[in-house]
Amino acid sequence: MKPSARQAANGDFLSTPFISVxxxxxxxxxxxxxxxxxxxxxxxxxxSGQVNGTTELSAQDLGDxxxxxxxxxxxxxxxxxxxxxxxxGERWDDSGAHVSYFDLQPLWERLRGKPxxxxxxxxxxxxxxxxxxxxxxxxxxxxxxxQVRTWLGPDGxxxxxxxxxxxxxxxxxxxxxxxxxxxxxDWQRHQVQSRxxxxxxxxxxxxxxxxxxxxxxxxxxxxxxxxxxxRRPSExxxxxxxxxxxxxxxxxxxLFPDS
Length: 259
What we know:
The chain is mainly alpha-helical.
């Protein structure tokens, strides 16, 4: 049978993938309390699962599909999880990386009229690349993305350690991949392998700083008094205004002692 002119005209369009959306969802989403932009987001998750075979989408990926920012996506995801419309699953992939995926089972349960089960305290774990982009306030370059993957892959740094190094750089106001790499190397040199090791290392460093301060303050009282009286008032005032080093930037001062 020869196809109709309408079918022939739409052949290219009809040959692209289609997805199945339950009519009950389209008909009842507003009554369930799902907002229109959240419905678009749920449909994109549904489409990814049906077409690509996975719902492992980052905030940036989902935002691009929905025309929303990563922050808007995160707020919407948090609300849907809190209201019992969406779940967040976690697993390890074949390469040993920790990944998150969206679970639509809570949505289907709501459509079946089952009571809302309050989810356990759960947050959407961001992928490292998204975290770097949000902290740096800009998209990462291809080389920077490769650097993050190198830290997590060939270099063998666990994801939590890379995230902690990122936080160190933010506290030190050093938005530099070179700085983060030096922090990671310093922790590796001191055999930091767990969060407990890192906390112990930070504590030991704080203690060394305090001991150094005590040693600097052991000069004889008379000499200290004489030095103080010999200074001009402007010098004493300038010295009093010199800021002390913030212990939060411990690694920064260790790597850059002249700062």
